[in-house]
Amino acid sequence: MIRLDNVAKVYRTARMETMALNQIDLHIAEGEFVSIMGPSGCGKSTLLNVIGLLDEPSEGSVQIDGTGIAGYSDRQLARLRNEKIGFIFQSFHLVPDLNVVSNVEIPLLYRSMASKERRRRAIEALQSVGLGSRIHHFPNELSGGQQQRVAVARAIIGAPRVILADEPTGNLDSQMGDEIMAILERLNQEDKTTVVMVTHDAEQAKRTARTIRLFDGRQVA
Amino acid sequence: MFKSYLVMAFKVFMRRKFFTFASLFGICFTLVVLMVATAALDHILMPHTPDVNNDRTLLLANMSLIGEGVRSTSSPGYRFLDQNIRDLPKVERVSIFTQARPIKLYRDAESLEVYVSRTDGQFWRILQFDFLEGGPFNDEDERDANRVAVISRRTEERLFASGNAVGKMIDVDRQSFEVVGVVADVSYLRTGFSDIWVPISTSQSQAYRADFMSGFSCLLLAETAGDRRSIQEELASRLPDIELPDDERYETLVVSANTHFEAFTTQFLSSEYGEPQAGRAGALLILGALLFMLLPSLNLINLNLSRIFERSSEIGVRRAFGARSGSLLVQFLTENVLLTLFGGLLALLLSQWLLRWINNADLVPFVNLELNWRVFGWGMVLALIFGVLSGVYPAWKMSRLHPAEALRARSKL
Ligand SMILES: Nc1ncnc2c1ncn2[C@@H]1O[C@H](COP(=O)(O)OP(=O)(O)OP(=O)(O)O)[C@@H](O)[C@H]1O
Ligand SMILES: [Mg+2]
């Protein structure tokens, strides 16, 4: 499903170069639930961004679902992201100006679809994360756990084959974190969605089928 | 797709009430001032009844006699105009008239102040008044000193409660005149403004005929707008040969025939010799308008910039979920264009209300300012350009950012 060959990512600023990723070879099969662990600054988010086509590698190649993305245009990348990938972020990244249901609809705005149908699917997605009764609230009217569940609904509404979650429970207490974890596990088991999750929590990592460990931009396990 | 942008824009406006208000206020205020100012300029400068020919006319309203350490400036006299102006080449018509001056009229025991102007027959041919009743007097009336008068609607209402003044008599300067025509009121700012017009020759004293200086104005109608240049030059070349009264004291005669715009601008920017300053005035006007537009636009750009950077998380999220950078541009553009259009609409209503108020409050007597649609159109176009630029530039910058960067910008806060 996801294949990285010899991927490196270098950040260049005026004063220094940071090797955020170094010689990463990675294969994640369809339907896998993989966690990524490692100390802060080791390149976990960078790796996830490269997998999610949000950032280009400085070297090496990335394949998603069998298609190499080298030389893809902005339009083609946008389309791939839209159809294949759903993102969940540590800080939720909900749009504060939009209410819950409009936030969830965002991925479908970039597909051609009647607004009624969009709305119907958004409500369905919200119900599946247990927020069917909060659709007209604004993000700032929800608890952290609820906000992250909205973000999960947004990630799954487009029925992506891959979900990329960057410390999805990092800003939540353990009970809310467990809820999010349970939803991700359910998605993985019931829908066979591939899930890649960055986490600092060893307990959570244990619940996944495989853990990738990074250290200083290198894969150590 | 586009509809969802509209809906989104609306949602954002409703959520960001302060931003929406500030933007609307800026756009609206700028446009309103622009509209009112241009309405005033339009009123003064553009052809309106009765100055419908003002793109072909030249006005002589001032003359100066200059000598060693002396200088006297006044309006031209009848003799000077009569002898030197009528035979200028390429002049189709010449009218000599006095500026309106206030007199007292008596109706029963009441005294009314009205303006009186003395004119010739050509006056009514160059200026096109709206006759509501009757008609103008003509060259024969002036030649024969017929006691006839044209009065304004306002004067008719004040003097004759019943209306229908034609054929009735009015007393001006202890002389009786028969009303031959009634015209719609004209603005105080128009050439030829008055309440009552009577032939020059009906003046009680004929002494004015001998005066070189003071008392009169002269309006020339050129054959074409372009001929005015050569008429001005011909007049200037004649001046040195004209015999001056009191040539012991005075050596130089300065008289200029001004276009409507020149005449207007010399009033505000009179130079040493009362020479036309139209070029300078035009540049000043345009510069002023631009400066005036610039300030709120910069403000708007600034407001948009900070707001869009504030929304970098939203931009990152949309990119992550499949927005092309182009769609983001369109989204922000839609928001700005919508806001600008809405501001323009508000400005339109507000300007119309304000102009009506100015007209009714009689700040300037008999002025009737009108909304100039052409100017409104241009104002809207400018506002749109600024609205688009102020939204597109920051959005373009953001949309070129890597999605990963846009997402990070927020989480680092
Ligand atoms: N835009 C950037 N410019 C320069 N350096 C960067 C940039 N983004 C990340 N880095 C650097 O790359 C390295 C990896 O960063 P990354 O965000 O991937 O770490 P991380 O493992 O996600 O850390 P954390 O657990 O704190 O989230 C860090 O040293 C970071 O400072
Ligand atoms: Mg990280």
Write the layout of secondary structure elements.
The complex is a heterodimer of chains A (221) and B (413).
Chain A: E1 2-12, E2 17-28, E3 33-37, H1 44-51, E4 59-64, E5 67-68, H2 74-84, E6 85-88, H3 100-109, H4 115-128, H5 144-156, E7 162-166, H6 174-190, E8 194-198, H7 202-207, E9 210-215, E10 218-219
Parallel strand pairs in A: 3-8, 3-9, 6-7, 7-8
Antiparallel strand pairs in A: 1-2, 1-4, 4-5, 9-10
Chain B: H1 2-15, H2 17-45, E1 57-60, E2 63-67, E3 70-74, H3 78-84, E4 91-97, E5 101-107, E6 110-119, H4 123-126, E7 131-134, H5 139-144, E8 148-152, H6 153-159, E9 169-172, E10 175-183, E11 196-199, E12 217-222, H7 227-238, E13 250-255, H8 260-268, H9 278-310, H10 312-320, H11 325-361, H12 373-400, H13 403-411
Parallel strand pairs in B: 6-11, 8-10
Antiparallel strand pairs in B: 1-12, 2-3, 2-13, 4-12, 5-6, 7-10, 8-11, 9-10
Magnesium ion binds next to helix 1 of chain A.
Describe this structure in words.
Chain A has 221 residues and is of the alpha/beta class. Chain A is built from 7 helices and 10 strands. In chain A, the strands form 2 sheets. Chain A has a 6-stranded mixed sheet, sandwiched between helices. In chain A, strands 2-1-4-5 form a 4-stranded antiparallel sheet, covered by helices on one side. In chain A, a hairpin with a 2-residue loop joins strand 9 (210-215) and strand 10. In chain A, helix 3 packs parallel to helix 5 (144-156). Chain A is globular and about 45 Å long. The model of chain A has no long low-confidence stretch (mean pLDDT 93). In chain B, strands 5, 6, 7, 8, 9, 10 and 11 form a 7-stranded mixed sheet that branches. The model of chain B is unreliable at 271-276 (pLDDT under 50). Chain B starts with a helix and ends with a helix. Chain B has 13 helices and 13 strands. At the A-B interface, helix 2, strand 6 and helix 3 of A face helix 1, helix 10, helix 11 and helix 13 of B.
